[in-house]
Predict the structure.
Amino acid sequence: MPPSRLLILLAGLALILGLIIWLIDSLTRLSWQLYAYPLLSQALLVLIVALLAVLVGALIYYLFVVPRTQQRRKQARRSPQVPAAKTEAAEETLKAVRQQVSQIQDEVARQELLMRSREIEQTLSRGNLQIVVFGTGSAGKTSLVNALIGRMAGKVGAAMGTTEVGETYALKLKGLNRKILIIDTPGILEAGVAGTEREQLARQLATEADLLLFVLDNDLRQSEYDPLQTLAEIGKRSLIILNKADLYPDSDRDVILAQLRGRVRGLVAPADVIATAANPAAIVLEGETVQPDPNIMPLIRRMVAVLRAEGEDLIADNILLQSQRLGEKARYLIDAQRRRQAEKIVDRFQWISAGVIAVTPLPVVDLLATAAINAQMVVEIGRLYGCEINLERGRELALSLGKTLASLGIVKGVLTLVATALEFSLGGLLVGRAIQGVSAAYLTRIAGKSFIEYFRHDQDWGDGGMTEVVQRQFQLNRKDEFVRAFVQEAITRVVKPLNLDREPSDTDDQPLLPEVQLPLELKAKLDADLEEWNRS
């Protein structure tokens, strides 16, 4: 307890003691004077006791309650608060991630996302400042960490980096109330597979930093500029550290610093480019070898200034960034999962389409004839992406895309492509039904791939419209290696089973349309389309 409060306490106790003595004496005198009026004497006694109790309570409140209240208020004022808007945005993003995770079928990926979301929540609740030391293995990162924390934090002195995993150390800077974590990372640009893996770890740790210390030992190379630019583009706050500055004369050091500030203009402020000597070279004075003290005070002063002015925003921005990146990863996994499932749907319907065209005598191949098949494919792909559309709407989309395929000349191009590939694979002149069946499968594939892109982008064809999407899918699916593999599978699935590699005779038992396994509703719609086609 402070001396001033102790004096007040003693004075208060003395006052209370004096009041008690005075009260006893006064009560004694009053009791004799008011002996004839007992009611009045009792009321006066209660009043005096109440007054004394108030005085005692006020003294206790002033001495014990007020100081604690003031202390709590001071702590509340000193306690750093992460900006509420960014915190709420991060919490909402994490909530959305947990909802998305339930849709992921891969158990390993799902558990990884859940674990990462919990880590981000813990970071949000703890509110530690994370400073990541990043750079090449020979730049002296570990020596810089050693100098910052004032004790040995890792091996020092090897020609290349010695930190193979991210290592974390605590640091307390005067004037900052948050706990600061210094994270030493493996060096970048190291040779070999192991070096590449360590660099990936270093880059991952850098993306999770509140503040980045990018350590160099000379002018900035392009291979170092590229990761710095990438980190700056995602919002990482960086300090550029020219370490080993003691190895350069003052004039050369100033030139290098000026060059660095010019190269990082637009990414890092000039004041954030700092020279240090974390482990200066020993010097000989009067025949004795002397080890100079590390010179890192410019860095510490700049770190403190940045963290005091921007620390809370840096934490909030980083937490929001990490939650958003986690949300993007969840969406990526869900999208990849849906794409695989959608491609299975396309694969199934392309062979259904091939079988229908192959066993149905049509004069030309046209997707209009199999609009019902493609309509059902559209409905199933849409449902997979959470878009409930009916069969009629699916048929409208299929007809529209079929007309686009025809208007772009893709139907004719596919006929030629398939005919050439089939002739090359089987030899001899093939019957039209083989070409028609395989071409129908090929066109259905292009249509299905186009609809996957349509539903992936929330039922939007993009700025280029349906035409651009269809053309892109056609180009992606006409590569020689794909065409060869597709035709070989078509021969196995369609041409050989249906004897399409020879002209039919009157005695051949040709497969009929009912043998093609189709949903009843789809088959009925297809029969109506074929009847309309034959009438026209």
Summary: The first strand starts at residue 129 and ends at 135. The beta strands are 129-135, 167-171, 180-184, 211-216, 238-242, 273-275, 283-285, 288-290. The longest helix spans residues 297-359.
